[in-house]
């Protein structure tokens, strides 16, 4: 037989697992909780099984108990081709058989994972067949790798829907594995932070590998400046850094690093005549150093989230050095959705899910910059809240932590420019600290979301506008406790 003959191959499926899971759900409705976190009706191969699962979910969400008898009336009176032991059967007879052959609740999660695995396999098979069609019908004048880009996007989307390994393990085993790994290393696996205020707000000692982080602020508050500080600190500690920017070029990023680290303003770097000889040498030395580092700035245009994930994988393969890589995306509103279906919240959630999957797959922390919507900045108190995120409150679900920057002075000047009554000035006096009203450029950093800490923690930093950098207002570690 021809080894490439596919006539005897069967589409990936596991009808027995589908039946066993549905039986378990009919006998013990509590099975639905852990299973519903990842399994959907469309994941079943047998359409009637998908319909049963859909009806079970609908009834449970409505507060109804589910068993073969309570489902009567929610399923069609007959289903064409439905059989038991080779003989035609009614839906109610089929449900009764499923319940009678149900697996114990302890085995239900394993059956659900098997159903999901087969769905992933079917989707992967469709991707492979699409690749075959593209290759066999490719444009001779085109770039074959460029023509295959949609295939890479589809695979990345599948990765975002893959069940994470922690679900397959017991909760205790997942904890023990993480504890043992941290003990073996002696620290948390991640990218160090240049300012303690960030660590305190997100309740983490570093940006942990595999986590998705968000940074929220309005335009002009310095979120890119803070991000450049984090990137430079990561590079100084040996971590590969990729900056996927829809705004800044590599030249602009490096000028800002020099300004922050060596106190040579970016405006003067653009005109070497304004530099002293020693400053020129400093800039040249920094450029030579950065050229040797595992660092890249990719100017993005209309990339989708899967394409960004592909760029990150390529970068890490080329520049991986054993240290945890760091990936930054500036900014989430500029990412092109995979399709135009759905509202802003749906698109933002989907983008977040794909980037979270990319963070796990690349074993790197990803930092996603998020520019505030204009509505939140019109509030009397313009401090950022979750509703200011791209996609709103629901879009924060895939993120492990989201923190914000709030520069009082920026908003104070805006409020003062339009204040026209005593009431306006009273609001200004109430909202903005006296130090800010006296001209100090103080920024607040706080949390929109943290998984394992106190989201109410807020810290303050000083913004040095001349060198576009943030400075800690806390005493150095050796002085703590002396004041």
Strand and helix layout:
Layout: H1 15-27, H2 32-36, H3 47-61, E1 83-84, E2 87-88, H4 91-100, H5 105-136, H6 144-147, H7 149-161, H8 165-168, H9 171-185, E3 190-191, H10 196-202, E4 207-208, E5 212-217, H11 223-236, E6 241-245, H12 250-262, H13 266-269, H14 277-291, E7 295-299, H15 305-319, E8 326-330, H16 344-362, E9 366-371, E10 401-407, H17 408-418, H18 422-431, H19 434-437, E11 442-450, E12 458-464, E13 469-472
Parallel strand pairs: 5-9, 5-10, 6-7, 6-8, 8-9
Antiparallel strand pairs: 1-2, 3-4, 10-11, 11-12, 12-13
* Number of DSSP-assigned strands: 13
Rg: 27 Å
- Average pLDDT value? 86
According to CATH, what is the class of the largest domain? Alpha Beta
Placed side by side, the strands forming the largest sheet appear as 7-6-8-9-5-10-11-12-13
Strand content: 5-15%
CATH superfamily of the largest domain: P-loop containing nucleotide triphosphate hydrolases
Total helices: the number is 19
Number of domains: 2
User: What percent of residues adopt helix (DSSP H or I)?
Assistant: 40-55%
Termini separation: 84 Å
CATH fold field value of the largest domain: Rossmann fold
Uncertain ranges: 1-8, 479-483
From the helix content, strand content and strand pairing, which structural class follows? alpha/beta
Quaternary form:
single chain
Q: In the CATH hierarchy, what is the architecture of the largest domain at level 2?
A: 3-Layer(aba) Sandwich
Strand count, sense and closure of the main sheet? 9 strands, mixed
Which geometry do the CA atoms define? globular
């Amino acid at each position: 037989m021809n080894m490439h003959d596919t006539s005897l191959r069967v589409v990936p499926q596991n009808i027995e697992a589908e039946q066993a899971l549905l039986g378990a759900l009919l006998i013990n409705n509590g099975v639905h909780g852990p299973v519903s976190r990842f399994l959907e009706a469309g994941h079943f191969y047998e359409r009637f099984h998908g319909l049963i699962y859909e009806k079970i979910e609908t009834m449970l969400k409505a507060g109804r108990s589910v068993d073969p008898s309570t489902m009567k009336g929610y399923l069609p009176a007959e289903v064409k081709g439905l059989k038991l032991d080779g003989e035609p059967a009614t839906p109610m007879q089929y449900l009764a058989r499923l319940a009678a052959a149900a697996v114990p609740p302890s085995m239900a999660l394993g059956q659900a994972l098997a159903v999901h695995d087969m769905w992933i396999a079917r989707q992967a098979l469709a991707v492979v067949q699409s690749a075959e069609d593209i290759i066999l019908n490719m444009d001779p004048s085109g770039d074959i790798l460029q023509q295959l880009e949609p295939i890479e996007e589809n695979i990345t989307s599948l990765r975002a829907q893959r069940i994470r390994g922690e679900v397959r393990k017991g909760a205790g085993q997942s904890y023990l594995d993480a504890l043992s790994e941290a003990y073996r290393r002696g620290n948390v696996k991640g990218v160090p932070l240049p300012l303690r205020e960030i660590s305190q707000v997100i309740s983490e000692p570093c940006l942990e590998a595999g986590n998705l982080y968000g940074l929220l602020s309005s335009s002009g508050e310095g979120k890119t400046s803070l991000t450049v500080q984090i990137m430079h600190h990561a590079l100084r500690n040996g971590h590969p850094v990729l900056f996927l920017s829809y705004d800044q070029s590599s030249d602009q990023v490096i000028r800002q690093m020099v300004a922050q680290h060596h106190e040579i303003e970016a405006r003067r770097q653009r005109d070497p005549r304004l530099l002293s000889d020693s400053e020129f040498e400093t800039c040249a030395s920094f450029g030579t150093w950065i050229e040797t580092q595992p660092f890249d700035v990719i100017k993005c245009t209309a990339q989708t989230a899967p394409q960004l994930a592909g760029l990150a994988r390529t970068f890490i393969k080329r520049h991986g050095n054993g240290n945890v890589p760091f990936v930054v995306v500036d900014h989430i509103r500029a990412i092109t959705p995979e399709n135009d279906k759905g509202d802003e919240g749906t698109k933002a959630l989907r983008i977040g899910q794909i980037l979270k999957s990319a963070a796990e797959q690349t074993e790197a922390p990803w930092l996603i910059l998020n520019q505030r919507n204009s509505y939140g900045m019109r509030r009397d108190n313009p401090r950022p809240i979750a509703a200011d995120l791209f996609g709103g409150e629901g879009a924060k679900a895939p993120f492990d932590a989201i923190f914000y920057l709030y520069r009082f002075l920026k908003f104070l000047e805006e409020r003062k420019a339009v204040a026209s009554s005593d009431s306006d000035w009273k609001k200004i006096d109430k909202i903005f600290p006296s130090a800010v009203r006296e001209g100090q450029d103080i920024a607040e950093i706080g949390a929109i979301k943290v998984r394992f800490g106190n989201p109410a923690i807020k810290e303050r930093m000083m913004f040095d506008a001349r060198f576009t950098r943030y400075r800690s207002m806390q005493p150095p570690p050796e002085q703590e406790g002396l004041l």
